[in-house]
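To fix ideas, we give here one paired sequence and structure record:
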Amino acid sequence: MNLVEQLASLRKAKNNAIHRKERSEKQEHFTDNPFLFTKKLIEDKISGRLDFPREEVEDPTRNVHSDKNRKQDMGVQSIQAWSLTFR
C-alpha cells in the first residue's frame, strides 16, 4: 500500500469511528427519553432575523382577504328563522 492509500484508509477508519460514536450517543439519548429525543429531532431550528418590512407581508394578505364590496347588497333574500316545536 502506498502513502495515499494508507491516508485514505485511515481517514475512512476515523470517520467510521466518529459516526459510530455519534450513533451510539443518539441511541443512548433515545433510550433515556424517547419523547424528548423525538421533540428535539423534529422541532424547527430558529435562527436569524427576518429582514423585510411588515407592510410587505400585510398588504398582499389584506388584498386577498378583504372585500371592497362587502356592504353592497347582493340581492339575496334573507332566510326567516325556523320555528320548530318538539313534542
